[in-house]
Amino acid sequence: MNRRTLTAVDADDNDAERYRAPALDKGLDILELLSEQKSALTRAEITKRLGRNASEMYRMLERLVARQYVVRSPEGDRYSLSLKLYALAHRHPPTERLIAEALPVMQRFADAAEQSVHLAVYDRGNLLVIAQVDGPGTWGISVRLGSRVGLIDTGSGRIMLAFQTDEQREHMLAEHTKVKGELAVDHAVLEAEHRRVRELGYWKKDSQQTFGVVDVAFPLLGPSGQAIAALTCPYMRRIDDYVAPSVEDVTALLKDAAAALSMTRD
């Protein structure tokens, strides 16, 4: 048995050597390194951490930038992942797994909060609603599954923008196209709100689309601490005699739901 096991391992090693693709390995090494960073890296930092030759890293980074897998900072001296890999993942079964994991958590939230909730991911300059659960009551507001919602003037969009690197946020804003009815927002106001949201950890503000609705949104964080999705509740307050969960209660419940679905490391 040991002889056969060793033979199988040796065969795997031989196959790995036979089918080596050095250029591809370099590109994947860069992508994996950048995926673990909370801030952008210079070319020198990438070269040093990967133990590679500076000239080959330069050529590989230029190709990754040209193919839009990596973005260069406005100053041109730092690199970070773009959101292209996110976009590709949206067309792939991992999104189905995210939905499958999220739906039971969203259903528990909706039952406890007596409010609807939806999950949105970044998609080509705006957000795409990939999961939606209605509250158990007679009244409520929901966002239609498959809807594209604005990046700039929604709670989901603000959360998605706030929890990105500066380079990723610039890339998202550059890709953004206005949706129907979208309100213009000054760039300086956006940046100030991003800082506030990052410090607070969530978004809670009157809806800019509908009277009487308070948007409460939390990020679903990936291992590097960046938002991979936004979990949002369009909160509607009851004004009759029925005592429903308050917006503060709903915010706490949504925070727990988002934490359960996030992948941040301790």
From TrEMBL:
Q: SMART domains attached here? A: HTH_ICLR
Gene Ontology MF, one: DNA-binding transcription factor activity
Task: State the UniProt keywords alphabetically.
Answer: DNA-binding, Transcription, Transcription regulation
A GO BP entry is: negative regulation of DNA-templated transcription
Residues forming the HTH iclR-type domain are 21-83
User: SUPFAM superfamilies recorded for this chain?
Assistant: GAF domain-like, Winged helix' DNA-binding domain
What residues does the IclR-ED domain cover? 84-266
Gene3D superfamilies reported in the protein's UniProt record: 3.30.450.40, Winged helix-like DNA-binding domain superfamily/Winged helix DNA-binding domain
* PANTHER family in the cross-refs: HELIX-TURN-HELIX TRANSCRIPTIONAL REGULATOR, ICLR FAMILY, HTH-TYPE TRANSCRIPTIONAL REGULATOR KDGR-RELATED
What is this protein's record name? IclR family transcriptional regulator
The species is Caballeronia concitans
